[in-house]
């Protein structure tokens, strides 16, 4: 906790609720575990945080938002998948929402600590949240910010939808209809200025379930513009998710809200998927759930099957040792003229040639140190494939990869959307890769020969192939011919980074 939070511990709110510890914080609110000293029970107290520099108008807007959240959640107080509001009190002219306390972890945090969820777990989470959304929609409430951080997994197995801070009722005319929420979970129609509807919440739920099943966002890209473009036009690719669940998620992620699954259709599809015959599950998925909407009580503990650790391989030490020797020799050569000047009495004109000599060999010392002493690196993580060659990083995100395989001692990657024509975006780096005499190089079919395993110390084809399967390679691995590495024209060794 911060020093400010430490100072607040022990404070009594409205003369009744004693703050014990801070358990969560967001942009505008802090959640505390507190004790109701009248009833002697533990509760959660949500505090509105306002900057000292906030204008009166902004403060009034935030207070209105908090009160609106309390009223909307109160309408759902009997639903098992929504945290119950117990009271709203005022302290220092600011409202506090008093809620039931449920020891829990967010879905986002659970995925970070234990890896992706099994299909049955994702289905049960989807059923629980969809039932909560259906209840809200029946009362005219749109959540507008469904995402993994706003889904709680209780230690008792309960699944809850929280944070109705930006929720609205359809009849409220005072709500601004700008893009509200997290970019990767906002429905496409909302970027076109269409008023937020129940269908938007269902799209956000689909993106949330994709994240739980695949361990990565369906639409996250390196820039905000690319992310919005992906939300508007790209379709999710499934690597781990069985077909029965993938079809439901695709139905929730339909670009046209008219084609999107409704709450009732989504619930029926999820229940049908749950009752379907045995599905192939990811090896590191969590244990099966006991009943719809619940997770095992040990969800917060270390799972039996953790997410696969990243594979990191570096080149052998010989090249680095050689580079170090060359750098030292170049430094010695750069210093040689000045040692002569120091011990002897050379003519005055010798200073200029000595400076040129030192700059020349000093530059080579830096080049040797950078190119040889900084080792090549291959890193394969859950979401990124990275190769560093000659001091240049080549980075591919999971969304850019359509498959990866090891063939004839090379790691090959098939790009999901490779630039092919000379006038297309990215064609410059295509040409530069195509003329290299060694990896990385890109052929005309969009297959990137990323690196030779022989360049890396301790790299085995089996180890790299196993790690590469997380990007999908069943169809890609069917071919067994040797890779074709283009030959570079003399003197052309252009290189660029894939970012």
Automatic annotation (TrEMBL):
Matching Gene3D superfamilies: Phosphorylase Kinase, domain 1 (3.30.200.20), Transferase(Phosphotransferase) domain 1 (1.10.510.10)
Keywords: ATP-binding, Kinase, Membrane, Nucleotide-binding, Serine/threonine-protein kinase, Transferase, Transmembrane, Transmembrane helix
Pfam families, per the entry: Pkinase (PF00069)
Transmembrane segments: 321-343, 349-373
Binding locations of ATP: 46
Ranges for domain Protein kinase: 17-274
A molecular function (GO) term: ATP binding
Family annotation (InterPro entries): Kinase-like_dom_sf (IPR011009), Prot_kinase_dom (IPR000719), Protein_kinase_ATP_BS (IPR017441), Ser/Thr_kinase_AS (IPR008271)
Spans annotated as Disordered: 277-310, 476-499
EC nos: 2.7.11.1
Name of this chain's protein: non-specific serine/threonine protein kinase
Gene source species: Parafrankia colletiae
């Amino acid at each position: 906790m911060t020093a400010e939070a430490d100072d607040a511990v022990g404070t009594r709110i409205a003369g009744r609720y004693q703050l014990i510890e801070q358990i969560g914080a967001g942009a505008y609110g802090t959640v505390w575990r507190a004790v109701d000293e009248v009833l002697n029970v533990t509760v959660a107290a949500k505090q509105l945080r306002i900057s000292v520099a906030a204008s009166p108008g902004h403060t009034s807007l935030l207070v209105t938002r908090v009160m609106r959240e309390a009223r909307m959640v109160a309408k759902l107080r009997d639903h098992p998948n929504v945290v119950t509001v117990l009271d709203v009190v005022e302290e220092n002219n600011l409202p506090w929402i008093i809620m039931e306390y449920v020891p829990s972890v967010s879905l986002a945090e659970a995925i970070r600590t234990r890896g992706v969820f099994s299909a049955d777990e994702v289905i049960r989470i989807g059923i629980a949240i969809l039932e909560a959304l259906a209840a809200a929609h029946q009362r005219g409430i749109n959540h507008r910010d469904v995402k993994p951080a706003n889904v709680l997994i209780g230690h008792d197995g309960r699944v809850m939808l929280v944070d109705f801070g930006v929720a609205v009722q359809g009849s409220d005319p005072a709500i601004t209809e700008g893009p509200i929420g997290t970019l990767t979970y906002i429905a496409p129609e909302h970027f076109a200025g269409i008023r937020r509807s129940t269908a938007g919440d269902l799209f956000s739920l689909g993106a949330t379930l994709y994240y739980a099943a695949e361990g990565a966002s369906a639409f996250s890209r390196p820039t905000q513009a690319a992310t919005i473009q992906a939300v508007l036009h790209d379709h999710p690719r499934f690597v781990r998710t069985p077909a029965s669940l993938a079809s439901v998620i695709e139905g929730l992620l339909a670009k046209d809200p008219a084609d999107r699954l409704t709450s009732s259709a989504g619930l029926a599809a999820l229940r049908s998927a749950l009752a379907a015959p045995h599905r192939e599950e990811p090896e590191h998925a969590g244990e099966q759930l006991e009943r719809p909407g619940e997770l095992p009580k040990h969800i917060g503990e270390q799972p039996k099957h953790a997410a696969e650790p990243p594979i990191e391989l570096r080149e052998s030490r010989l090249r680095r040792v050689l580079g170090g020797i060359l750098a030292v020799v170049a430094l010695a050569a750069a210093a040689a003229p000045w040692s002569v000047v120091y011990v002897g009495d050379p003519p005055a004109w010798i200073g200029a040639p000595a400076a040129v000599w030192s700059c020349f060999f000093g530059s080579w010392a830096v080049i040797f140190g950078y190119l040889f002493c900084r080792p090549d690196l291959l890193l394969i993580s859950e979401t990124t494939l990275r190769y560093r060659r000659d001091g240049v990083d080549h980075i591919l995100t999971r969304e850019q990869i359509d498959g990866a395989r090891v063939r004839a001692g090379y790691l090959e990657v098939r790009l999901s959307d490779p630039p092919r024509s000379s006038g297309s975006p990215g064609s410059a780096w295509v040409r530069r890769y195509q003329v290299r005499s060694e990896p990385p190089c890109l052929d005309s079919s969009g297959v990137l020969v990323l690196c030779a395993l022989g360049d890396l110390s301790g790299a085995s084809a089996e180890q790299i192939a196993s790690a590469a399967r997380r990007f999908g390679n069943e169809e890609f691995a069917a071919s067994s011919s040797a890779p074709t590495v283009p030959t570079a024209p003399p003197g052309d060794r252009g290189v660029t980074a894939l970012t």
